[in-house]
Amino acid sequence: MGATALTLLLFLTHPAQSACRTVSVTANGLPVTGIEDMALDAPRGRAVLSAYDRRSGTTGGLYLLDLTSLDSPSATAIPLATGLRPAGIDLRAEPDGSRSLLAISRHEDGAATVERYRLDGAVLTHQSTIASPLLCRANDVAFLDGDRFLFTSSHGGCGWGAVIEDNVFGGRHGFVGLVDGGGVRVLVGGIGFANGLLPDPAHDRLTVAATREDALLVYRLSDPQAPPERIPVPGGPDNLTAAPDGRLLVALHPAPVRLALHRYGWPGGAAAPSRIAALGPAGTDILVDEDGRRFPAATVALYRNGPWNGRLVIGSVTAPGLLLCGEAAAGATGSSAREEPPATK
User: Fold this and answer.
1) Do the Cβ atoms of 239 and 88 come closer than 8 Å?
2) Distances in Å between the alpha carbon of 52 and those of 22, 104, 109, 173, 277?
3) What are phi and psi for residue 322, nearest 5 degrees?
4) What is the mean pLDDT of each run of 10 residues along the chain (345 residues)?
5) For residue 4, how many other CB atoms are within 10 A of its CB?
6) DSSP assignment, residue 132?
7) Pairwise CA distance, residues 84 & 112, whole Å
8) What distance in Å separates the CA atoms of residue 33 and residue 105, rounded to the nearest whole number?
9) What global pTM score does this model have?
10) Distance between CA atoms of 249 and 240, rounded to whole angstroms?
11) Which domains does the chain have, with CATH numbers?
């Protein structure tokens, strides 16, 4: 479907919202705050959480959560790696039954790296660190295969000058980068705050959230320099998750100024709206649309039918815990893990 037709459908569909409640998440007896990204291991009924309390300045980490625990008002997560400032993550099922995990790790000096881990059960083992100046504004990460992966960079440079150029003067210097055997390089640029990304090699597609453009950009993986299809969305898109029926779950920021005030704890920033949408050929359903007083600044949503009752699980860049909503979008996976785990050798 072309962008024009999808745009018309986008604003003609009706909302399919559902009741929600907050769930407290703790690890080692302490609250887990700022769960800005999640990677779903659907066959095992669990998710890896990337959390960092940015407003307090304390470090966070990576945590493992049994999704059945969300039936209770509070859930306990298992710490996998602590003392980090993680951002986007991705999970991949390996032939031996283990999982590979990628995590963007931001450092106090302004640099960022991508850390690769192996996850066996609840044991996380560090495998390698990928470092490059191109990663300094890395935001999200996604496997292409066992060796290669993509990442987004929100801005085109490392210093505050690059941030001011885009955030204040409206520049579009965000990009998607590729990490392979040849190193780290820019794959496609000119994006207004490149955020979540979702590669689909089987259909030669790469979907990128352009937060400051209120749009999703859909590139051909085989020819990323070709002009992308542009899909307008009702807010600034953040993380993306894929559904087996072809739809996308998108966390949206409908009020960017309020988000900025809230993110930095400035006056007028007590809350920032949270919106979750499901996009497909038939249009867009708004699944969650809150003013942010209960659960502000949602950045990611996962959904999967299973023993945890097919609920929509939502994380935020600032809020403690998670938001849990009733049945909504059909089967979003939110990771690169296979539908079923491979047989263990």
Assistant:
1) yes
2) 18, 12, 16, 26, 24
3) -135, 160
4) 40 53 96 96 93 86 95 95 96 95 94 97 97 96 96 90 80 95 93 97 96 97 96 97 80 92 86 93 90 95 69 93 73 41 29
5) 9
6) -
7) 11
8) 17
9) 0.88
10) 6
11) 3-325 (2.120.10.30)
